[in-house]
Design goal:
This is TPPC9 protein. 0% of the residues lie in helices and 53% in strands. It is mainly beta. β5 and β6 form a beta hairpin.
């Protein structure tokens, strides 16, 4: 589950926020399997989509994280969840997206490292009223 500014997000929702106001983020990973999973690294990467196949990830002048954009998850037990909190601060108006990835980092497995990517979250930063 992904909440941005207190609003549950899916691929069809655009979350509106104001430039200069911290936007709270909450990502909850729930383990519905019968086995413990982890360790993982959770990474949140903002970008702009220019609608021509180009994604701009070089946004250090437009967006900043309050805290870290990467969190480490040791282990999530069956039927339990793990919740991570952060905040974004938008410095300019525009349409932005948030790419959220879980990277499995378990060296005891024989399979290659894998990524679990959630649908991108669409955030529209507007001028304060």
């Amino acid at each position: 589950d992904i909440l941005v500014n207190g609003q549950l997000c899916d691929c069809d929702v655009v979350v509106n926020c104001q430039v200069g106001d911290p936007v709270p983020l909450e990502v909850k990973l729930t383990n519905w399997s019968k086995h413990s999973v982890g360790p993982f690294a959770l990474t949140m990467m903002p970008y702009q989509d220019y609608q021509n196949g180009v994604h701009n990830y070089d946004l250090q002048d437009a967006i900043t994280f309050v805290g870290s954009n990467t969190f480490y998850i040791d282990m999530v037990k069956p039927t339990k969840d793990s919740v991570y909190f952060g905040s974004l601060l938008f410095l300019y108006t525009g349409d932005f997206y948030l790419n959220i990835k879980f990277h499995e980092d378990n060296c005891s497995r024989e399979l290659p490292l894998s990524w679990l990517c959630l649908p991108s979250v669409h955030i529209r930063a507007t001028e304060p009223v």
